[in-house]
Design the sequence.
């Protein structure tokens, strides 16, 4: 028993030391080496607009709410740090009010099956068996629920970026792609705002890959999400497979998210804003 305890303490100490070393790392900067702003802002604006058209982002404005069923699988130690579930493979249902951060997640598998968490106006809450909401702090859900929403709506939401620039062309997954860097206020690294590199198919104008920082979690972390297997859900264009890499892992993926289904207006807006005392 003491041996097991010592092994556990040793592993815990190793993890603490690793995270301590990583936390001392400098802020990740997604700007390419040698890049100087501005390269071609007008070209970037045009490409961003073309990408929006290719993804038919205007159709998001027709939705009051939507539901998405997702499968997610997380790989290894780093994958385990990138989710809020008790298992490494999970299925869950998401309901959102588009272009907000109001939504709910219901877990459909595993030890937490049928648990429902929500975010409304920045507050997290839990729904009991009678669907009565109770405000309950949950930092993981406060981060991950809006994050999943942002990536589902990404082609639309990134149009709000106020600082963008063109990065030229390169092959991504064997396909000719054009790149944009996007952020808010400046494309340089900022403490509280993320940078995004968007690689867009030169012909179809759909996203192939996005690179992004994770400032809300760790300043030194960046990730890459690949948008694959596009499907048209009555005008809502979604990548049904999204494998993710991290700058902390040299080879391979840390996770993969798959969209299994998408349904517009499945629930009401009011059901996703059950905290009636909160003004939206």
Sequence:
């Amino acid at each position: 028993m003491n041996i097991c305890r010592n092994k556990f303490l040793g592993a815990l100490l190793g993890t603490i030391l690793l995270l301590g070393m990583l936390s001392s790392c400098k802020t990740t900067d997604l700007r390419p080496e040698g890049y100087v702003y501005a390269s071609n802002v007008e070209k970037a604006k045009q490409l961003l607009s073309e990408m929006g058209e290719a993804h038919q982002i205007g159709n998001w404005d027709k939705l009051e709410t939507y539901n998405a069923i997702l499968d997610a699988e997380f790989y290894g130690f780093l994958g385990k740090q990138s989710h809020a579930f008790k298992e490494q493979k999970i299925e869950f249902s998401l309901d959102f009010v588009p272009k907000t951060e109001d939504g709910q997640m219901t877990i459909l598998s595993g030890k937490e099956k049928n648990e429902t968490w929500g975010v409304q106006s920045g507050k997290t809450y839990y729904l009991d068996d009678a669907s009565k909401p109770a405000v309950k702090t949950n930092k993981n859900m406060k981060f991950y629920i809006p994050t999943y929403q942002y990536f589902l709506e990404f082609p639309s939401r990134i149009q709000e970026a106020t600082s963008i620039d063109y990065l030229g062309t390169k092959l991504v997954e064997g396909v000719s792609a054009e790149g944009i860097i996007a952020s808010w206020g400046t494309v340089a690294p900022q403490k509280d705002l993320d940078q995004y590199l968007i690689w867009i198919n030169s012909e179809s104008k759909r996203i192939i890959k996005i690179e992004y920082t994770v400032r809300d979690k760790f300043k030194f972390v960046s990730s890459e999400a690949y948008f694959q297997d596009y499907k048209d859900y009555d005008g809502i264009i979604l990548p049904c497979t999204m494998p993710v890499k991290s700058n902390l892992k040299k080879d391979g993926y840390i996770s993969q998210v798959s969209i299994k289904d998408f349904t517009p207006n499945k629930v009401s807006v009011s059901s996703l804003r059950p905290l009636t005392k909160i003004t939206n």
